[in-house]
Fold these 2 entries.
Entry 1:
Amino acid sequence: MDIEKVRDLDHQFLFQNYGRQDLCFDHGEKEFLYDLDGRRYIDLVAGIAVNVLGYSHPAIVSTVCEQARRIMHVSNLYLVREQAEAAEALASVCPGPLGVSMFCNSGAEANEAALKLAVKATGRARIVSTRNSFHGRTMIPLSATGQPKYQSGFEPLVSKAFDFIDFNSVEQLKSAITRDTAAFICEPIQGEGGIIAAKEEFFRTARDLCDERGSLFIVDEVQTGIGRTGKWFGFQHLGVVPDIVTLAKALGGGFPIGACLTSRDIAATFKPGAHGTTFGGNPLACAVARTVIETIKAEGLVERSAALGERWSQQLRTLAVGSDVIKEVRGKGLMIGLEMGEDAKRFQERALGEGVLVNVTGGRTVRMVPPLIVSDTSISRTNDVLKDFLDR
């Protein structure tokens, strides 16, 4: 099937709710995608920070095939071996007291579970979030998202339980978290907001205030978790341990899965029937998640993300010297943002023409979140494309 036929079927039979680029892929390998005509692209989007092991990684392919032959889905009415094994693997990389998981299917579902858990555990009615944040598209996470453009048209369904403060404002945080606050939810790095990192003082203050006032601290690691930032979790850069952590994206390495992690005491809030999901924690998704964690450990990809990300960021800062196009290079590990203002979209288009996939977030920032296995050669090629763009 050629791209014209795909485009025709898309327009006839699909909701037109995505601003798609006119591009369709046939297959992928390592950090590369191949379109229907066989052209190769360096993929620095990775399904938006999802494909941490790249495409067609032998460990994931083997797990999917083996597990699919055995059992893909069974109800949560029964014990699920693969779910227990995935939770054990996740606990092995989490700092205490985090270590108890509930699996779902996406980041929005993980945040939904976390916010419901916080309200039920504390018996309180208010939740504090940050402006410029993004926590998901279902209604509770959407209500927690501090970007009105995502809520436009859905205002009758938006919860009024949320109070918003400026990201990294310690003073606003001190006023916002009260004894009526069930939880404070925050990203360690605002991904959709433009790769904006939280400051250590902001997170430490949030931890202290939550402890003092009996609120729970929820950290949304949907985009930052599982090695992306050079540590297993983004909050590990900030000197705190939250009460609840949410995960998705990289956890499944391309297969849909989300997770809500907390302590045993807080998890005990959810009695049978309090919350659940039909497909969450299915054997296939959990087997893949366990494989992703084990493979990242075996290949040293967290450490590689830290070292490679630091080196690449420095190379990008060097390229930016003397340029009035790149305003700032931001991020941690292999989560990198180039603030380029109105030039961001132009660079995205130029890079696409040169066989490099990036995307623009926050309207002005080029986001690069490649597979953690991305090669030095691909990074060098990207740098060459950027240099040529800046020179022109």
Entry 2:
Amino acid sequence: MSKNFFEIKNATFKVGGINKVNNVSFSIEKEGDIICLLGPSGIGKTTILRSIAGLEKIDSGSIMLNGKILSSNKINVEPEDRSISLSFQENSLFPHYTVEKNILLGKERKNSGKKKKLNINKIIKLLNINKILNHYPHQISAGEAQRASLARSLISQPDLLLLDEPLSNVDQSFKEEIQVQLKKLLKDLKITTIIVTHDSYEAFYLGNKCGIILNKQLKQFDDPYNVYHFPNSVEVVNFLNRGILIPAKVTGGDSLENDDLGIIKGKFIKHYPSGSNVKLLLQPEDLEHDDDSNLKLEVVDRKFRGTNFIYTLKTPSNQLIPVAVHTHHWEQHEVNEKFGIKRPIYIEHIVCF
């Protein structure tokens, strides 16, 4: 029997008889942990949530919660008997009930086994829906409907909470505040949660672990730090879009060389024999700016990211390299100007493919 609070083992998820994600295995070790699933639209993330909730069947593998098999090729526990709550991305409110009545439906199916008492007014205030409690779903915006649905799911205090793009319709100015409060609330109440999101920053903040789903497979399942800094495939690198791959040749146990940048030193994550031709992952944080450096590249773009500028630099071989610079740096560089790269180049962890 599994010692994990939740576990999916070798499960294939289908919809309409078509395989969406094959041979998926991952687990949630402790009650109260938060897992985030990332991947492009239509890849099967929602199908996984629906299958966990019991709305879709699986014919291979198993899904277990708190030591109990929920789904397998022989067992399929009905949705109402799973103590699982699923909040959909689209409006799932009952149209003939007010927002308040919709939310209180969650209270009616509340799990009595939970030790901590949930303050309903606190949830309503957190999600900023107190002014629409007497409205009907057709009278509110998509973002308000999404937050009301989230409130209903939270109030039910399930053993497992499933959230499908829970903040996709929420204004950016309000989203970060909800993320902070939502994470605190889920941790405080020890509500184990699986979140589907397209926002990698949201996933990295909320998730104890993140899963990347690409091409019908769970490509990587790891801590957010490792997913970002140690992607395990070119596919994950391209999906996250947080860096580029440049050609390089391994010149020793702690060094490699690129024709444009010269010698780069650091710690290899994986061993490559000297002389190997590799693709080096270069992320915006890897290179440092230095106005006095003799290695200067042309600025072709500059993006403002609040605390940072992301400069795109063109090398002599027409590689486009991103470099992050803190916005408090005294001198800003314009497009077509020269931008210095600090030498010697040292990257803490060298990731190659």
